[in-house]
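note to self — DONT lose this again. spent like an hour looking for the file last time. sequence + predicted structure for the chain T wanted, 180 res
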Amino acid sequence: DPGAMNYDPEATIDDGSCYYESYYEVDIGWTGESQLLIFQDSITSLEVGDEVGLFDTSGLLSDQTCDGIYGELLVGSGVWDGDQLEVVGIGSIDNCAWGGFQLSGYVEGHDVTVRVYRHSEAQEYSVDLTLSVGNGLYGDLMIAVSEMDLSPYVAEDIYGCTDPGAMNYDPEATIDDGSC
């Protein structure tokens, strides 16, 4: 695969050893709160090398403050190797009521959202989960996924300032909200 970090142009047979730069990089620190998701080896829709990302679409983004900012947040990731995969999501902490601060992570009771990035196609997928354990909410004792249905991911509209010349320009915004 020419997209792999260890691409060998002289190889004529793929030996399955390709590896890639991570697509899902978790950028939040460990809080001590966690959610285990087990992706069972019964899953047939994943290919070896697929990256699995755990998201909270309304996770706590504030970190070391009491700003109370929420939005989509990657809280965990892993790479499928064909065997059972355990991925741990990082949970948020809010100690503002006691004079402390907030730490970024998923919010207990929110839906677990999973997306898959397939390097062989350079494509991100939305996922419908079939669970064998748990109800799919952050805060479950454990969640086990027995199958996944993949469909091409389409990003939702993100409101913000879309003017690159503005001081509060948001490069991820797709719809201008008039805040520039």
